[in-house]
């Protein structure tokens, strides 16, 4: 099972988390997020190359995402807004890998994946809460994944921590979940992860 730590920002904290060796680290370029990295942010060069860097965006212009990927240093893009086939296609043609995030609460929300023609490298399912965009730190009913029928692998997000990790691993045997995404439940404050908690997640995944 691969795993991702999202909402990273502070250089020293990034370096400490990188030493625990998650497969992905996410950096948020959405201004409304409390984990927003800032316009001119550059991902610390001390993070090893084998850790995939993910730029997270909400309804950002594709040209700007491509430009930022070069200046900030990420090769994966996570789209949390209304982005669709055109954006996925353009990003793929620019050589970037794409994660399309969907907020879900019902089986009908899961069915939204069927509207895509240009498929991403992963779909990410996070918890839907009203009209909010982005993570809520809460878990959704994983049973609704029964409606997922595509061959695109999944990233599971939403309230994951060391306490429900084993249950997430069990459910991943039933559905095509390849990555577990951790964020707020491992935090001291927005954008700052508690390294001991990250380490315990790593140990349990081993």
TrEMBL record:
Gene symbol of the encoding locus: trpF
Pathway(s) per entry: Amino-acid biosynthesis; L-tryptophan biosynthesis; L-tryptophan from chorismate: step 3/5
UniProt similarity note: Belongs to the TrpF family.
E.C. designation(s): 5.3.1.24
InterPro entries listed in its UniProt record: Aldolase_TIM, PRAI_dom, RibuloseP-bd_barrel, TrpF_fam
UniProt GO molecular function: phosphoribosylanthranilate isomerase activity
A Pfam family it matches: PRAI
Annotated ranges, domain N-(5'phosphoribosyl) anthranilate isomerase (PRAI): 4-202
GO biological process: L-tryptophan biosynthetic process
Reactions listed under catalytic activity: N-(5-phospho-beta-D-ribosyl)anthranilate = 1-(2-carboxyphenylamino)-1-deoxy-D-ribulose 5-phosphate
Entry protein name: N-(5'-phosphoribosyl)anthranilate isomerase
Enzyme class: isomerase
Keywords: Amino-acid biosynthesis, Aromatic amino acid biosynthesis, Isomerase, Tryptophan biosynthesis
């Amino acid at each position: 099972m691969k795993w991702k730590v999202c909402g990273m920002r502070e250089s020293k904290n990034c370096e400490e988390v990188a030493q625990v060796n998650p497969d992905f680290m996410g950096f948020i370029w959405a201004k409304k997020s409390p984990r927003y990295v800032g316009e001119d942010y550059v991902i610390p060069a001390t993070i090893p190359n084998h850790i995939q860097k993910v730029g997270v965006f909400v309804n950002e212009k594709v040209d700007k995402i491509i430009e930022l990927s070069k200046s900030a240093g990420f090769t994966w893009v996570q789209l949390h807004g209304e982005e669709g086939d055109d954006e996925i296609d353009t990003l793929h043609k620019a050589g970037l890998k794409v994660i399309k995030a969907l907020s879900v609460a019902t089986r009908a929300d899961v069915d939204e994946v069927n509207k895509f023609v240009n498929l991403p490298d992963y779909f990410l399912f996070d918890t839907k809460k009203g009209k909010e965009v982005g993570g809520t730190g809460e878990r959704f009913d994983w049973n609704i994944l029964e409606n997922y029928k595509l061959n695109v692998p999944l990233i599971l997000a939403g309230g994951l921590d060391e306490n429900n990790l084993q249950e997430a691993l069990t459910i991943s045997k039933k559905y095509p979940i390849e990555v577990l995404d951790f964020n707020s439940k491992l935090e001291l404050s927005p954008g700052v992860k508690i390294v001991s908690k990250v380490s315990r997640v790593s140990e349990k995944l081993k």
